Fold these 3 entries.
Entry 1:
Amino acid sequence: MNQRAVRKSLALSLAAIAASALALGAVPAGAAAAPPPSAVAAPPSSDACRLPAAVGGLGSGFPVDEQALPAVGTLKAALLLVDFEDHPASPASAAEAEANLAPGVEYLERVSGGRLEVTTTTSDGWVRMPEPSTSYPFERGLSYEDHVRYIGDAIAAADDTFDFSDVDVVWVTATKEAPNITYSPTTNFLDVTADGNHLTHAVTFGYDQWRWGGLVLAHESGHTLGLPDLYLFEAPPEDPGNYHAAVGGWDLMGLISGAGPEYLAWHRWQLGWLDDAQVVCARGDRTTSARLAPVALSADAGPGQAAMVVHPLSATRAVVVENRQPVGYDEAIEARGALVYTVDTSVPSGEGPVRVVDATPGSPDGLDDAPFAAGSSWTEPTTGAELTFRAGPGNTLKVTVQP
Ligand SMILES: [Zn+2]
């Protein structure tokens, strides 16, 4: 959850939080300029599909929010382990706390295809906070100011023995002994200076980390890097209580414990984790086909395999198709095939900037069986474009967009 979301939706329940390639037939660059023999033309530049951000803060447009940290390069994290006079931690439990978050770091490095390297410097054992745990009102509606005070106290308590001069993001994890540090908010507006370094980005890891496991670190880091929440801050009136009506468990920013917690291909493109050449832009004036590698393998996709097809609908909206197969972090998905979703760059975090199209509306499994199976098709209701999905070699998927 992002700090702006905290400010906006303080009453949010834990349940809510639960929250080189190319189109076939393309003419390679530098090839003879003869026109392709069929209606299948070279894809236009991905620029036409790079939808500009049309909302402030965290969202799904380009570029990501200016307050986000770079997602390519090295992210230098300070991990502060904190305990409290009313909930002291045993020295031995430090290793357990570190181990719980480690899978989140591994996730970021794997899903980025190595484009993001995370270096973590951990405090030398537990750092005692100056106030009892109950002075931080996580259970009573944590404000932005409360959160900054909590993070600031942790930094001040650690500062004597910790060098913050070269830190990009501060992670503060509370001892498991303090269940009243309930959840795990993020801020990109910290505004604390230590060792001459103006610290702006921080994540708190509270008791919910023991339910989510380490992927909570990757979700919160998504906010640090500019990604929005894809679960809904308010459930739709027609589907009360369903905070996951937009993307179900198909993206880590939607549901940490979902069966398919890979980042969506669109997110990877936003973060610079996909090359433009891996994005096939299907404009409305020609037929476009592409062969898609599974999203989980997009960093290592073979030649001729793209990561997604984007069919723009307007200046701020597009339909995206990606290939989801039970590999990588998608190992446990119930249904495989073409995951189709709309992206709207005018919709803010938590209000559904991404919405998955359900191939099986009304099924008891909700969005768990949302992908379109190979051999099926779908007509986009506003442009009338027909999208067809066929199995390709291995676990690839051939997608054709026919205007
Ligand atoms: Zn979030």
Note: DSSP finds seven helices and 17 strands in the chain.
Entry 2:
Amino acid sequence: MVYEVSHDDAFRWLNAQPENSFHACLTDPPYGINEFTPKEIEKLRKGSGGVWRLPPAIGGNKRAPLPRFTVLSDEQRNHVREFFREFGRALYPTLVPGGHAFVAGTPMLQYLVQDGMASAGFEVRGAIIRAYRGFRGGDRPKLAEKEFADVCVTPRGCYEPWMIFRRPISEKTVAANLRRWGAGGLRRISESQPFFDLIESARTPKEEKRIADHPTLKPQKLLRALAFALLPTGEGNVVEPFAGSGSTLAACEAIGVNSSGVELDQENYSRIAQNVEALSQLYPAWTDELLGNQAAFRDLFDGTGG
Ligand SMILES: C[S@@+](CC[C@H](N)C(=O)[O-])C[C@H]1O[C@@H](n2cnc3c(N)ncnc32)[C@H](O)[C@@H]1O
């Protein structure tokens, strides 16, 4: 399969793409706030503070840092909404009518992303819930943990939403749109089962993290299943404007789908080719099952993780 990757700004790059270039978008964006600005990335790489939560080493294993979103001001929240309005506007014309976008998010910011994308013209079509247990922390009232020993400030996060958007179809029916554009629906698990909006997904396996050093690396099995679902006829190409380590491009490569990616950070960009090569070669048997619409999908939906 073919993938291409550009070292560029996603907005500039999308605005330069011809209309109707892609059948789908599978993306894990930054939150338009500041977690991927050079200043914050420098703090992350140094391991000192900033918007990144840097948990202490536990049992000798350093945990992966995560951005904290509870510290956002009103202005930053508006910035998220605007960021996704701009993103939606740039993406919209590049997708064929009926093309879907799956956008990774976080529960607390989901409404802002949906609002921004909707104002750019996308239909909001719910979310796929990736059920997994990320990092737990900060759930007790600060400096009053003993006084309010029975209180948690937020529930323990057990899911990550992948919001579903669709560029409206241009034809009268989904069937006509599928015929014309190869888009408008999602791929079924099997003839008798549609795609589900709940996926059990373990944390990104260590083996994948050893290959691709990125703070928000997503697991291959999840990305492959999502990329597979995004192309209803099994044909077309996928865009990931915030490529990071290249994991989405690797997932597309593994399932035989053409893809295009963009990454702004030079260090991440320079590692993408080697990451795609190594990540795409993992789990060949599982991937064969996925492409055969059978057991691999059941793994993801029956709680055994992926
Ligand atoms: C959440 S990460 C994606 C991680 C990816 N899913 C993975 O598994 O490796 C978002 C990425 O977008 C990049 N980025 C941020 N702003 C960008 C922009 N304007 N254009 C292109 N890439 C950008 C960041 O450098 C970061 O690597």
Note: The radius of gyration is 19 Å.
Entry 3:
Amino acid sequence: MIGASIDLARLREEVRSALTMIRVATFDGLTLRLEQGGNLGKGKCPFHEDKSPSFICGGKFRDRCHCYGCGVDYDIFEYWQKRRSVDHAEAVRQLAGLAGVYFGEITFEKPKAGVKRSPGKRLVDDAASSVKPSLPSLYQAKREDCEAIAKARGLDAEAVWIAAANKRLAVVKEWPLYQSKHNGLWYAKQGWEQHRCWAAIDETRNVAEYRRIDNGLHTRVNQGPDDDKGPKVWSTGGKKWPLGAAQIGDRKRVLLVEGGPDMLAAYHFLRRWNSARRPLLHDVAVVCMLGAGLRMRDDAMAYFKGCRVRIMVDADQPKDSETKTKRKLVGLEAAHRWQTQLAEAGAAVELFYVGDLYNPDHVREWHEGERAAGEIEIVQEGLLKADGSKVKDLNDVVHCTEDVQWSDDIREAMCAWDF
Ligand SMILES: [Zn+2]
């Protein structure tokens, strides 16, 4: 099926005037030292093993980069094509979405016969060649993977695709796997059904969290499909690492969430309100902690300096959900712990909370008792999903009625940054 085509050349020039090479490279995770009043960026080349900063962005040509080491010389689109292994039209499409110059579905004319989309690229190497905590083979998610994840989770497929394009989401072919203590390699666990799963991850490879693409529980082969003993989520690596911290770059706005599903939901809502006037997808960095129990790693703190960080408090289900006592506000305690750490690191931090699982009076009372810096915003008390169950995190808001999802309260909570 070919949808309505749009003028690729015109869109390309709009994107070119909206983005600089420095912004694109920073968005891609490069660390640049800025000179000439911020018009020239120098850093290590992403296309070769660069020991000294040989890579120049901007300067005379604001949309180009050049490497004095390996000689690459690209404009923003060529750069994105090479870095993301996508074709030209796809690069224009992705950058248009990130720049906020085109909002909505974009369908290009069918490519010429014989031109194929590049295959899924290996994102993380086999355990044997990996230096970081050993992870199984991961692949950059393809379009159809993103659509399957979006369908299973009620998300906007384009938002999932943007998460994948930003290397925050990858795919592993078989799950669960276990790592051999003997040789460090990954093996499939015998007696368990194998499923493709998606991983919340970033380019540091410090930690990854895996879930089935179809959002199901894992089942043991001999127990049949009714087996409910299997885990829904599985993670490896160090959970103290905030996913995406190293990709904040020069952005000053950070949305901090907890858990892979909330990370995808964050992209879902940022895309919903992304516009040329408010380029949320480009200017807001999504950072994700995998688990509420831990402090953030100290070596991640420098990335947050000078940022305005909004923490979406996750109302983790207490053991006894009827009790709702102050002592059970696990997600709030985690958010407060991170707030303290981030404030010490030089970030301005705000907490906000959407949902119903916690009693809002307890939330306010707890917050005052802790004498936490600033206030906590409580967005829409008593919020319920479309099926009548209680909202406990951002992922649940995706399952509210369209009226709630499009409400001013939710929009303001997600767009609270000044532009
Ligand atoms: Zn180079």
Note: Residues 103-131 have pLDDT under 50 and may be disordered.
